[in-house]
Design goal:
Elements (H helix, E strand, L loop, with lengths): L1 H20 L13 H21 L19 H13 L6 H5 L2 H13 L5
Helix pairs in contact: 2-5
């Protein structure tokens, strides 16, 4: 019984350490945005984060390593991806073609505004 309590205490400590270590996503909102613009940007950011996790994160890694030879979206890659989507480029990703322009816009807002490790 004593060993069981010790094991449970250790497991609980590990759980707490992992929760504390989870990195909250921070974002870079332009400083000239007024309060209403900031709120709209954060709303789009949060929506985009959820859509990214559902539709993109399995292959494109920003929370963990993505699949080999698949971009993890630098700011330049984001702009190129968006331009391909707007032009209707047939080489563009099949998942993006399933998203509405608003959904893709939210994902791209999330990717653009997230703080990237330098």
């Amino acid at each position: 019984m004593k060993y069981l309590l010790i094991i449970l205490e250790i497991a609980f400590c590990i759980f707490l350490a992992q929760c504390a270590a989870k990195k909250k996503v921070e974002y870079e909102i332009p400083p000239h945005y007024v309060k209403e613009q900031r709120e709209k940007a954060i709303e789009a950011f949060e929506k985009g984060k959820v859509l990214f996790k559902i539709n993109c994160a399995e292959c494109h890694g920003i929370y963990k390593d993505g699949k080999e030879n698949i971009p993890n979206f630098t700011k330049t890659q984001i702009d190129g991806y968006n331009a391909m989507y707007i032009k209707g480029d047939p080489r563009n990703h099949s998942v993006a073609r399933k998203l509405s322009p608003d959904q893709l816009g939210s994902i791209l807002t999330f990717l653009r505004l997230r703080k990237m490790d330098k």
